[in-house]
Model the fold of this input.
Amino acid sequence: MRSLKFLLFSLLGHAILAVGCSSDSTVPPNILVITTDDQGWADLSAFHHHASDISTPHMDRLASQGVLFSDAYVTAPVCSPSRAGWISGQYQQKWNKEASWEVGLPNHVKTIAEYLKEGGYTTGKVGKSDFGVNYHSNQVREYPLHHGFDEFLGFSSHAHDYFLLSEEVENKTPDPYGVSAALGALFENKGKRSFSTGYTTEIFTDWALGFLERNQNKPFFLQVSYNSVHHLIHEVPEKYLRKYGAEPIPNYDPETMGKYEDYYLKYGWQGEELVGKLRPYYLANLNCLDDNIGRLLDALVTLNIAKNTLIIFFSDNGGEAVTGANNRPLRGAKGMTFEGGIRVPFIMSWPDRFPLGTQMDFPVSTLDILPTCLESANLPPAKDLDGISLFGQIVGTDGPSSLERPLFWKFQNKRAVRLGDWKLVLMPDIKEKLPKADYLEGPLTQNMPQLFHLKEDVSEQINLYNDYPQIAKRLERYLEKWENDMESHHKVGTK
Done:
């Protein structure tokens, strides 16, 4: 059942887009991918299950102009491997045997930007570029200009300070280039650019708007990869903090606060300073993000290219427990193969071709983004992809059987497989609770396999492993075969 708010936005979407250009299926669509960082599954008010304190009117507006997916997954419960998976359309385990953070992007793995650039698209990326290795360098394969992007402004690391973007602060800081604790000037194309003032969410949007203006008359592919709502979650413009009653916290000062890593851990991952206070900071950060997504949508209308722009919106993994994200009613959070770690907000909008204000409730994956974009752009299908095009499902030319396929996850010692409504989880019990974790837990299993029927138990609370042994064994065989297939690809790729 849809919320009244969602239906009102759907009607508004029809009215706004009625003034756009006329439909022409021979014109390839512009493609805009918007990626958020660690956004919770309940933190999108277009969903009927949204948290009671959430309001995301501009994300909702995007949903009203397209298709909202309730059962959408990433390929990993953390950012680096998840990003490698969607951008390649392949399971990252094909080349990342360890199935961990340090996934990389090998030369033989082709990206969506390379496919689209070969197809005549101008390509640009702004924001976070994170594949787990080769950070802080513009000379490596993982840097956007070396895997298909014509232009780039952003950072090459797991995280970056929202405010401290100048060369001056970079030079004063003892440790400005830590893997998860970067600050200072941003990369811009082949060089770097210093910002003495500004906030990353707004700077990234400003750059994206300039890209849209420069390329409005030719097919473009733009990825806007926000670092919001990743920690440091408290770093938000003051007007948003005031709105949610969150007390401002001083920014890092290299003159008085020692190493940046210590500041990052104090207010980030370890975060004891913010125990019980995270949610208002998260809401403020998300509010700023939502406003900036609204700026992107407004620009498309102003430039008269909204109707023929395919927009794909998703979070890179499940909500993070130590930033105040909300994944309920899903179990778990970022880093886990329970639903809270891998099921994400996901929207596809293309007003010229896709239905408006629709929700689809079958399992899809961010692996499907690349093949969907290729079919939408009338480009040849690519070989060796693990995703499938959703185009036919969305426009109604394909039947449900086209999506009957298992989906797999493996991250460190955590594994899972979903087929239909059944999901098998192989994940050890969590022995240490995160300091501020507010996520739905489940019964301990002494590290035994868990089988869930998601249609009846989306919260993964009732382990049916012993009740349906044949289904459990079937899924175990699927998972074992997939792991063997990934190992075979890894051996071929490293020869």
